[in-house]
Specification:
The complex is a heterodimer.
Chain A lengths: L2 E3 L8 H25 L15 H23 L6 H18 L2 H4 L3
Chain B lengths: L6 H30 L8 E3 H34 L13 H7 L4 H32 L1 H5 L1 H31 L4
Helix pairs in contact in B: 1-2, 1-6, 2-4, 3-4, 4-6
Classes of the chains: A mainly alpha, B mainly alpha.
Chain lengths: ~110, ~180
């Protein structure tokens, strides 16, 4: 059996933390593109007319997520990142992003 | 000869059951595995080949989720939101208009479908991040408590989001199926 003993030494976690935080940024980007559209402040152009504006919002949010991930990955991949701040920040970003995509929230505008 | 299912109906099934269903099952399996495969102690043994299988499972889930959202947005959503001709009274071929025509079902568009348009994309992003961590760290992901916790969180949130929107999809399809 190819097995390894889990090491007591710290695993460099930068790449994982970059992926984690980028996920939060992607979620927030989705929420922002949606809420800006609902508020009439910015509408991402439709990339495919039969499907409408959702194609622009999702494509732009996905692009934001990928850019954030690439930037964070390049900065953190060889570093040990303190999870104490990344953890709550990411969870808050995800929660806020999801909240902003929830239609009943739009009625508060 | 009439076909039992229309092309639109088949694409809806591919979107919701084949791709989305596979992703949901994969997420559940990954979540269970992350819990079951963790070493019992700090110096516990992690099987590299099992960690590799789990990593590939998460890659498969991410691929399924991306296919689900792409098919959902670009293939099944356009006929759902199509505008019926002026004066048409039978709206059964126009699900969005059918839902909005009845105050009791209007929420299925204004809340359920509007949520389904965006939230699954976030689930796909989070599942992709989990798959990346699994592939990059393999057995170290299972052996390191923080990495395992991060991965499990991404998978758990993704699972919750996909399960919620899948349920909304069932509600919509029960009332206004894309036939």
């Amino acid at each position: 059996m190819a097995a390894i003993e889990s090491e007591r030494t710290t695993v460099v976690n930068g790449a994982a933390m970059a992926a984690f935080l980028a996920g939060g940024i992607g979620a927030l980007a989705m929420g922002l593109f949606v809420i800006l559209n609902e508020a009439g402040l910015y509408s991402a152009p439709a990339l495919y007319d039969p499907a409408g504006g959702v194609t622009g919002r999702t494509a732009f949010a996905t692009a934001t997520w990928l850019i954030a991930w690439v930037v964070l990955h390049n900065r953190w991949k060889r570093r040990q990142i303190e999870s104490g701040r990344v953890w709550p920040t990411t969870l808050a970003l995800i929660a806020l992003g999801i909240l902003l995509t929830f239609p009943p929230v739009w009625t508060l505008l | 000869m009439d076909l039992l299912f229309s092309g639109r109906s088949i694409w809806t099934m591919v979107h919701g059951i084949v791709l989305g269903g596979a992703a949901l099952m994969g997420l559940a399996a990954a979540l269970f595995s992350l819990r079951a495969m963790r070493p019992a102690t700090d110096r516990g043994v992690v099987d590299e080949s099992q960690a590799q299988l789990l990593a590939w499972l998460m890659v498969g889930v991410a691929v399924m989720l991306w296919l689900t959202v792409i098919v959902g947005t670009y293939v099944t959503f356009p006929p759902y939101r199509a505008t019926p001709p002026e004066g048409l009274t039978d709206l059964s071929a126009y699900p969005r208009s059918l839902l909005r025509a009845n105050p009791q079902t209007a929420w299925l568009h204004s809340v359920a479908m509007e949520t389904k348009e965006h939230v699954p994309w976030v689930a796909a992003m989070l599942a992709t991040a989990a798959a990346f961590i699994g592939m990059r760290y393999r057995s170290r992901m299972l052996g390191d408590a923080m990495l395992r916790r991060v991965t499990a969180t991404l998978v758990a949130i993704s699972f919750a989001l996909v399960a919620a929107v899948a349920l909304l999809g069932v509600f919509i399809n029960k009332v206004a199926p894309l036939e």
